[in-house]
Each structure stands twice: as C-alpha cells, then as structure tokens.
Amino acid sequence: MLSHQQIAAATRIGMLTRERDTATACGQALQELGGALPFDAVTLLGIDPVSGRHVQIAGVGYTAETSQALAAEFVSTPWYANVVRQELPRSISEDADDPGPRFRHGWFYAERVRPAGFRDGLTGALRHDGRLVGLIHLSTEGADTYDTEARQLLASILPALGVLTDPTAPVAGLGDLPPGAGANLVTAEGVIDVPGRAPAGALQDEAFARLVEVFALSRGLRLRALWPVGAEWHRVVLRRCAVGPGAATRTAVLVHEERAELPYGLSPRELEVLTRAARGQTNQAIAQALFLSPRTVHSHIEHLLRKTGCASRAEATALAVRDGVLRPAPEDLEYFVERAPAAREQGASRR
Fold first, then answer.
1. More exposed terminus of the chain, fewer Cβ within 10 Å: N or C?
2. Is 186 helix (H, G, I), strand (E, B) or coil?
C-alpha cells in the first residue's frame, strides 16, 4: 500500500508539469521521486527530436556522458524493446515475472550494471501525446528493491515525466495554433514535426525555406505573411522559440500556416507591389524590380488603395505591416520582422 509520503511526492511531480522552465522542473521531479522510491542513481533521458539520440535532461549519480553512452547501447538490446512495449516499468528484481529475455542473464547486466555496483534497477518508457519521448532509469545497490508495488508507483508518475521530457511540450505558441493549421519546428539541424499537426506545405518551397533561414538569423520574434502553396494562398506565421531536451535545447522557428484567400480581393501582383511599397520603395524602384512600367505600378497602387479602403499610400503600408498583408522576400525581413523593443531601437540606430 502506498504511503502518504509516496502519494504526496507523486502529486508534486504532477504539479511540476505546469512549470515553464522544464529543465529545472525535471531536476526537481527527480528530487521528489527520491521521496517516493529509493535509488542510489537515477537518469531522466529525453529523445532529441532531430538526432533521435537519448539525451540526459536530469540525473543523480550519473554524468550526462555516462548516461547517454549507456542509453545508446541499451536501445540496441532486446530489453529496450521490452521496456517500450510494456506499460508497467521493468525491474531487474521482477525480471523473472516478465515475458522475454531475462535481463540478469544478459551481457548488459553483466558488463555494465553489475560492475558499477548496482544489483537492482527500474526502467520506464516516457510517452506524451502517444509518442515515445524518453526513458527514466533508477539504480540501487540493494538487491530485490523494486517489487511490483514500486513498478506500479513509477507507472503512475510516468505520464507527468513524459510531459516534462517531451521537447515540444514547452514550446510557446503550440497550444494557440488555429484548428487545422499545419506546423513544423525548424532548426539549423533539421525540421521537426509538431504532434497532431500536418506539415507546413510552404516549407517545400525553397524560397520560403530561405525566408525561414534568414528569419532565424535575424533574431526577430515573429513574422506574419501570405505565401502561395500550390494553387492556394496560406497565411503563415514564423515565431522564434526553443526546443529540445536538456543539453540539446536549440533555437527553433515555429512555422504554422492555414489556408486563406488574399484579403481585400487583392491580386498576387497587387500584394507584391504593396509589399515593396511597405518597405519604402518608390514607384520607380518597384517598376524596375518587377519589370513593369511606372504607369502600371501607379495603377496597381490606385487599385489596392481602393480595395483596402485606404486614403493614402502611407495608410495602406501601415495596414500591410500591421495585419501581415505581405509577401516578403528574405531581403525584406529587416523591414517587417517583429522584434523586442530594445532590438527595434538598436536596428533603427544602425540604419
């Protein structure tokens, strides 16, 4: 029967899922876990979403290097498959009661666990939103420490640890995405799928991928724009964020999109002219860039003013920037990217 102390520790671990600083919360979760289950060492590992490697987020008695090296070996063993397959965490002392190969009789126990002085261990798979996101492993020098009750207690805590370990869970903005919006997280190392979301189709466009790359380098906070995806137009938003477990945390760009008609009945060419006007180009400069005559550009300006209901070119460009009625190129970002107030002032002084 669980003690009051064990129940209280499990409850406090569950409450840590509300913390924004998940790295610190993971360390606190292991401290609380020590009040519920005995261990001489413990490691909490998250799966890096880009490399697929297990990365230590928090640990007691395990260095990150040791823990990650052991995990890299462990995932290639049949015992890892048993851990992932079963809802109830596996323990060395209860190994005889579980189907599959006996861990005590394997090379990993003989060559890695036993020489380190550990006689019992308890390993659980961490999941969030139906995805495998990491592992937790407890080790103890005492034999026969982790019985069925200990396994059941850890199983009750695994969902909270899964939330803390999921690298996408703390990403700001994911919970605010419009229903049906496609989304991805883009890092310098690769593109990460967002749980429950279709991929952002705009990322298949090399020009848009370049726009995201320049945005990431700009240190901007947000960019709103319109972008063609196949025969359709999508409203796209780029946001700076951080993603990844523990030491693997990296800067990322959250890209999300949803289908939208061009606002105000604008044509693609009028949108292009409006974007260039919003960055301060004259009619002559726009005409040269788009291989049009100045008269044609003037006509486009008149049409978009009438469609948007704006009384002046300045009012139309203010509307475009305010509402993201833009189709920017990478070289336009310095004019349109949203920054923190201090960064905006510094950028203005440099220009």
1. N
2. strand
Residues 30 and 130 in one domain: yes
Q: Please, is 59 exposed, middle or buried when counting C-beta atoms within 10 Å of its C-beta (0-12, 13-18, 19+)? A: buried
Beta-sheet strand order (sheet of 54-60): 54-60, 41-47, 131-140, 120-128, 90-91
Q: What is the mean pLDDT of each run of 10 residues along the chain (351 residues)?
A: 86 91 90 95 94 93 95 93 90 70 85 94 94 96 93 96 89 80 93 92 96 93 96 95 77 95 97 96 96 96 97 96 96 91 53 49
- As for how many domains the chain has, the answer is 3
Domain membership flag for residue 349: no
DSSP string, 222-286: EEEEEEEETTEEEEEEEEEEEESSGGG-EEEEEEEEEE-PPGGG--HHHHHHHHHHHTT--HHHH
- Token look-up 């803390």 returns 164
Domain stop point among 261, 294, 320:
261
0.85 exceeded by the pTM? Answer: no
